[in-house]
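Incident review: delayed structure delivery

Summary: a single-chain prediction request sat in the queue longer than the usual turnaround. Root cause was a stuck worker, restarted by the on-call engineer. No data loss occurred. The affected request and its eventual output are reproduced below so the record is complete for anyone auditing the incident later.

Affected input:
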Amino acid sequence: MEKIFEKKSPVIEKIEQAGFKKKKDAWVKWFPILDGEFRLEVVVTKENTTYRVMDTAFEEEYIGYKVGTGEFGLRIKEEINIILEQLVRKAYKDVWFANQQANRITAKVKKEYEDEPEFLFKNNEDAGVFRNSANEKWYAVILNKKEEEKIITVLNVKLDRKKVEQLQKKEGYIPAYHMNKTYWISIVLDDTLEDEEIMKLIKESHAFTETSSKCWVIPSKPDIYDVKQAFSKNKEIIWHCKANFQKGDFVFIYISAPIQEIQFACKVTNIDPDHKTMKIRMLKSYDKEFPIKKLKDYGLKSIRGARHLPQELERLLVEKLEDE
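Output delivered after worker restart:
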């Protein structure tokens, strides 16, 4: 659970809005768990966040859940996880890199494509890879490079080979670091280039990863939007549309933690590119037919944003629709 706070930084104003009280150089709040039998004490400083579980009957720290594998320990872990995830969403900001422009670009990529950097390399933990969540293809990489006597931060993108040749002659660009130099180029993140110019190149790079598949899965957080209630009022609803959806595509809605299952099959009935929205019509609802374990068995390992379905899972879901 400590990973929840990785590359996150508390926003003190929001921490205070969340009910934390300042004590010396820290902000403290406790949350009841298991109907008050225990409490989770969270301590936030500007540098880090710590927490502990207290047994309210004996007023002493309880650590049994850390090593236990039974249902009781799992229930405590689940409640802690939900509390901490909600806290991070409300009161923390993302701090992916030490470089300020890298963080600005990453925030723009997250907003545009709903993709976050993945830190995949044990020998280079500062290198962040951006992958199209629909098919896991890379379209950008941020990493540090030793240049003479200093360390610079670069962004690698994939472009047309002629454009790569042209850009290499301009200030702010260097031959691709650790990538194919014919089709990739490194952009130096030192504010030589405007963020908007860099985002246009990222868009071109992202286009190389796009596919023509017609079946998607999209996540929905139940604490933010009640999809079931929305469909109970209208079989057709408006949804944000940041991926390359087309009219007629099938969309399967995955309800994230704590539910973690696909609950709705839908069809795209209209696209509004100006407002980046689409209309989806509910075709079928599911009840515990496609939980997270089954999705993983069929190759769907993560659902961070809109993505295409693995072929076998797509076939299974579409066949169930055709059987209706």
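Verification: The chain has a mean pLDDT of 91.
Action items: add queue-age alerting; document worker restart procedure.
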